[in-house]
């Protein structure tokens, strides 16, 4: 029998020599990365570094050219996206996918129902799905959104909409959450609120994020990997990355 400590010591996500080529273009090169339970990791890099391509490989949207993707120790390299979701992975995207004319609660309810095998019966009152409602309320309460449950999504600020997308990502009870630029398009104040929102999420949830807003990265992530031309140039703590001469040169900029 596997002990609880042994499970905790196993990576939630492991990438081994991940490569992706589009014709003659090599988008990712030999990317190796480990994410442990509860980790807060970030991937940064200039535009065109291969960050979103890497997320598409991890989540099964693109097939890999070579290398492996392991999720909870299982080789999922050839698995489709929905099977990876069922195993415990969730992802948000740069482009919002909310229903703006529906309420916050309705958006969460639809996200939960979309993950279940049971069919949605049109003539049945949605309120009769008590377990779905209970879960929706719990997600909103945990995220501090319960007071806005009856608000139409279009009336939320852009920052609140981005936070709500993360709440929808939590509907599948993931063990690892991949966030694709959660602070994209946010004002400085909204970015600060996003960082605070992310830091309040379940500490047992592993988070891997792509982000250009370095304030959010340094606030949220305890480990940062720098991607450059599809390769991991350097990995380290916030302080190590902030003070790295190589990173300063290719990404953060020098004084």
How is this structure best described in words?
This protein has a single domain (4-252), classed as P-loop containing nucleotide triphosphate hydrolases (Rossmann fold). Mean pLDDT is 89; it is low at 1-7. It is 35% helix and 24% strand. It has 255 residues and is of the alpha/beta class. The longest helix is centred in the middle third of the chain and has 13 residues, at 130-142. It has helices spanning 4-8, 51-58, 81-87, 104-113, 130-142, 158-169, 188-199, 214-220, 238-243, 245-252, and strands at residues 13-22, 25-35, 40-44, 66-71, 74-75, 89-92, 176-180, 206-210, 223-228, 231-236. The protein has ten helices and ten strands. Helix 4 (104-113) packs across helix 5 and helix 7 packs parallel to helix 8. The strands form two sheets. Strands 6-7-8-3-9-10 form a six-stranded mixed beta sheet, sandwiched between helices. Strands 2-1-4-5 form a four-stranded antiparallel beta sheet, with helices on one face.
Spatial ordering of strands, largest sheet: 6-7-8-3-9-10
| Count of DSSP H/I helices | 10
One letter per element, helices H and strands E, the order comes to: HEEEHEEHEHHHEHEHEEHH
Low-confidence stretches: 1-7
Give a short account of the largest sheet.
Answer: 6 strands, mixed
Helix fraction bin:
25-40%
Mean pLDDT: 89
- Give the beta-strand count: 10
CATH class reads Alpha Beta
Number of domains: 1
Q: State the secondary-structure class.
A: alpha/beta
The gyration radius over C-alpha positions equals 19 Å
| Spatial separation of the terminal alpha carbons | 55 Å
What fold name goes in the CATH topology slot? Rossmann fold
Determine the CATH superfamily: P-loop containing nucleotide triphosphate hydrolases
Shape: globular
- The CATH architecture classification is 3-Layer(aba) Sandwich
Instruction: Give the DSSP E fraction (strand runs of 2 or more residues).
Output: 15-25%
């Amino acid at each position: 029998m596997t002990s609880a400590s042994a499970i905790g010591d196993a990576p939630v996500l492991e990438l081994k020599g991940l490569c992706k080529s589009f014709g003659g273009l090599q988008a990712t090169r030999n990317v190796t990365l480990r994410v442990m339970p509860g980790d807060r990791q970030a991937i940064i890099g200039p535009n065109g570094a291969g960050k979103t391509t890497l997320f598409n490989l991890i989540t099964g949207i693109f097939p890999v050219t070579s290398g492996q993707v392991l999720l909870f120790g299982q080789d999922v390299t050839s698995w489709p996206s929905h099977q990876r979701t069922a195993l415990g992975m969730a992802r948000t995207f740069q482009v919002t996918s909310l229903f703006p004319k529906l309420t916050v609660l309705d958006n969460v309810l639809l996200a939960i129902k979309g993950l279940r095998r049971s069919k949605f019966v049109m003539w049945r009152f949605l309120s009769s799905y008590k377990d779905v409602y209970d879960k929706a309320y719990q997600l909103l309460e945990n995220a501090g959104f319960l007071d806005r449950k009856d608000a139409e999504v279009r009336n939320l600020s852009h920052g609140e909409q981005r936070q709500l997308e993360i709440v929808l990502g939590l509907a599948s009870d993931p063990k690892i959450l991949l966030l694709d630029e959660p602070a994209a398009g946010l004002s400085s104040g909204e970015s600060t609120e996003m960082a605070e929102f992310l830091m309040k999420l379940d500490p047992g949830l592993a988070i891997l994020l792509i982000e250009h807003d370095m304030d959010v990265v340094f606030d949220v992530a305890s480990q940062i990997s720098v991607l450059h031309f599809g390769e991991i140039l350097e990995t380290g703590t916030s302080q190590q990355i902030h003070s790295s001469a190589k990173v300063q040169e290719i990404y953060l900029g020098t004084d």
